Amino acid sequence: MIVFTVRKSENQYRGFSFEGHAGYAEAGNDIVCAAVSVLALNTANSIEAFTDDFFRQELSEDGGFLKMDFPDGVSEASSLLMDSLVLGIQGIQADYGEEYITLTFEEV
């Protein structure tokens, strides 16, 4: 199962992380893992390319872990990108179920 966590402080994004593998299908054919990875990596790449926001990122080589932190908060543009990420993760969870992915929000 993928555990996807969004961290916020006073309604402002402070970061996100995911870890694990969905187990929906065999490695290399798991569309749930692929969808989550694409959404998260595209969000990270978009924040880097389209904003000046500072972030820290940790990534595992096997693709089963990504953590992104915004120690200084986020701009309006990054907030919109994060809203889009959350919407996408919620859609995957609704379509495939909580047995493959859970989304939690953490106040930090």
Q: Give the terminus-to-terminus CA distance.
A: 24 Å
As a percent range, the share of strand residues is 25-35%
Radius of gyration, in Å, reads 13 Å
Choose one word for the global shape.
Answer: globular
Based on DSSP secondary structure assignment, what is the total number of beta strands?
5
Query: Given the helix and strand composition, which structural class is it?
Result: alpha+beta
**Segments where pLDDT lies below 50 for 5+ residues?**
none
- Average residue-wise pLDDT: 96
Along the chain, the helix and strand elements come as EEHEEHE
Walk across the major sheet and give the strand order. Answer: 3-4-2-1-5
Main beta sheet strand tally, sense and closure = 5 strands, mixed
Percentage of residues in helical conformation? 25-40%
Number of helices: 2
Descriptive overview:
The protein has helices at residues 31-50, 76-96, and strands at residues 2-9, 12-19, 56-59, 65-69, 101-107. It is globular and about 40 Å long. The two termini are 24 Å apart. The model has no long low-confidence stretch (mean pLDDT 96). It contains 2 helices and 5 strands.
Task: Spell out the blueprint of helices and strands.
Layout: E1 2-9, E2 12-19, H1 31-50, E3 56-59, E4 65-69, H2 76-96, E5 101-107
Parallel strand pairs: 1-5
Antiparallel strand pairs: 1-2, 2-4, 3-4
Helix pairs in contact: 1-2
